[in-house]
Amino acid sequence: MGKDDVVSTPDDGRVCPEVGRWTVEKHRLVSLYATLFSSGMKDKWGRRVYVELYAGAGYSRIRDTSKIILGSPLRALTLEHPFDKYIFCEAIPQNLEALKARVKHHTPEANVAYVEGDCDLRATDILAKIPSASKGASVLTLCFADPYDIGLKFSTIKTLSSRFVDFLVLLAVYSDANRAYKRYVIEDAVKVDEFLGSTTWRERWKTAQSRAVPFPRFVAEEFATSMETLGYLPTPIHKMKRVRSDEKNLPLYFIALFSRDKLAYKLWDEARKYSTDQRELF
């Protein structure tokens, strides 16, 4: 992947969405965890699969600069110990075409499957592309969900969780849920309901308000509680990575791990530690 932890790359002339500088920190953390996950699990599972629900175009341009960086799909493809299969879902056709071209350029031999469309509408198609386990051939999947807002539906997570899938989820509880608070808490709004997989959260929010719990923290903790209903281990707020804007130093979102195995959380602790302390993966 190169020595620069931003993993810069030349402009290839294809579509290249703009991102904030804080994206570098996100990519560093996700790449480091994927490195630990893929290396640590390669002798424990028959096949390892990597899934992205919002794969993007493969390249991104740092806003207000000329610097172009590799997106998380390409970083995952170029690990020292690559996954056995990759599945990339992307809703914007132009982004998906650019991603396909860039994957072919960087890793032409990789086993990659693509799903075009909204991941919430294509969840069963994504699931179908994950290899089925068989006797003597176990399959473990790492799924990264990187939505721009809290539009990811919990039903999608539930569908994919029918297999052995660990999730890294970006929880946009500051950049979206907090900013749109008044619109989301009204009774006929369903976005938070669908994100949490619950229609009863408003009752618990009233109690949380009486304890002066901030809405972003409440939503993040509610999501973690919903994950527990699917058999995932508890993920307390202090185990989530909070990412801030480098422009105004305001919190933007949490990145949280959800797994059914304690070993994954040990790797996550290492990733959270070294993504902050190191500028290179190892």
- Stretches where pLDDT is under 50 for at least 5 consecutive residues are 277-282
CATH domain class name: Alpha Beta
Number of strands: 10
> What's the alpha carbon Rg, rounded to whole Å?
18 Å
Number of helices: 11
Largest sheet: 7 strands, mixed
CATH evolutionary superfamily: Vaccinia Virus protein VP39
Look at the structure and give the mean pLDDT: 92
Spatial gap, N to C terminus: 11 Å
| Spatial strand sequence of the major β-sheet | 6-5-2-7-8-10-9
Query: What is the CATH architecture assignment?
Result: 3-Layer(aba) Sandwich
* Beta fraction: 15-25%
* Share of helix, binned: 25-40%
Number of domains in the coordinates? 1
Give me the strand/helix succession: EHEEEHEHEHEHEHHHHHEEH
Can you tell me the CATH topology? Rossmann fold
Q: Can you tell me the overall shape?
A: globular
Structural class: alpha/beta
Report what the structure shows.
With 282 residues, the chain is an alpha/beta fold. The protein has eleven helices and ten strands. It has a seven-stranded mixed sheet, with helices on both faces. Strand 7 (139-145), helix 5 and strand 8 (165-171) form a beta-alpha-beta unit.
Describe, in short, the structure shown:
The chain is of the alpha/beta class and 282 residues long.
Keywords, separated by commas or semicolons:
single chain; 282 residues; alpha/beta; Rossmann fold; seven-stranded mixed β-sheet; three-stranded mixed β-sheet; 11 helices; 39% helix; 18% strand; disordered C terminus
